[in-house]
Amino acid sequence: MTTKTSSKEAAVPRADGMASTLPGIALCLGITMVAVVIQAVEEKSLGHPYIEALVIAILIGIALRTAWTPSARFRPGIAFSAKQVLEVAVTLLGASISLGAIVASGPALLTGIVGTVGLAIAASFAICRLLGLPARMAILVACGNAICGNSAIAAVAPVIGADGKDVAASIAFTAVLGVLMVLGLPLFIPLVGLSEHQYGVLAGLTVYAVPQVLAATVPVGLLSTQVGTLVKLVRVLMLGPVVVIFSLLARHLPPEGAPAPRRAGPPGFTKLVPWFILGFLALASFRSLGLIPEAASRPVTQLAGYLTVVSMAALGLGVDLRVLARVGGRVTLAVTGSLAVLLAISLVLIWTLRIA
């Protein structure tokens, strides 16, 4: 049966194959438009998007999937949006990364941020595994917690071959705590006596998304906003190396619930490092060398953001809420515990470096 299906698929012309994806892509684009409009309303009403469009898109997708199961007509486009569109988005994100401002912040802070990301990934992964989460979901939660929330989860997922349900569950629960972080983080200023500078570092190290860093720091002061954004950019820069590392380790991850496969010969370079990671690193290098000007970087980054929302809509459309209900308690504990560890590591770094 599988052979027959594969033969039929191989016989389908490329143009017809692309045409078959259009209904599903259109559905994902429709969800994306709704999510973007909702975020725009948030920005106009509240000043900042406390819940980003990509989170809204995945929630709409999940709600729609709960009420209606997409027919075979929509499935190719949904699958295309969840994988290929996401890979293009990850590639384009490299155009937003510049090394100049990061290097200027000083070696001590840079080293501390890199160390914080590494420790946070290791601690989060350990917590998730202790709570019984599958290895791939543990990696997703760890990377989302340590680097940049939803974007990191979305970037790492295709590299490790994560299931769409695990991706959606990780994003859904990480998103909830991300919003709570924005609302609750300012309480650390009086609780531990943080200065504006210290609070900016803390926000940059712990808050998941760049817009959320702005939402958490703008009410505190300009210095907090500038420092928080800079530190956050360093964390985002860690996404490239982390994804490359996990692309190297991915072949050692057995299918969930199955024994580890026998090691084959060393895979080719393109198997170890996916094309979109090479594209990400290339664009980041061009941006750092000034070959991609600011005027060109902004629209490319914006396009990457929209494509990520489209892929998140597709992931939401593949999620059954009953799956979320089964893993919800453990994932919530894992994300909460991971976030608590990240906060502790960040505060220790601030005090160790004697940031005033």
How would you portray this structure in words?
- With 356 residues, the chain is an all-alpha fold.
- It has one domain.
- The chain contains 18 helices and no strands.
- It has helices at residues 2-11, 14-46, 53-67, 75-93, 100-103, 107-130, 135-148, 150-160, 164-184, 188-192, 196-206, 210-217, 222-237, 239-249, 269-272, 275-288, 294-317, 321-352.
- Helix 2 crosses helix 3 (53-67) and helix 12 (210-217) packs antiparallel against helix 13.
- 44% of the residues are buried.
Q: How many domains make up the coordinates?
A: 1
Oligomer: single chain
Approximate shape: globular
Biggest sheet descriptor: none
**Helix and strand sequence:** HHHHHHHHHHHHHHHHHH
Uncertain spans: 1-13, 258-268
Beta-strand segment tally: 0
Q: What is the CA–CA distance across the termini?
A: 67 Å
Given the helix and strand composition, which structural class is it?
mainly alpha
The helicity comes to over 70%
How confident is the prediction overall: mean pLDDT? 80
**Structural Rg:** 20 Å
SS field, number of helical segments: 18
- Beta-strand percentage? under 5%
Keywords: Cell membrane, Membrane, Transmembrane, Transmembrane helix
Subcellular location: Cell membrane
InterPro entries: UPF0324_pro
Membrane topology: Multi-pass membrane protein
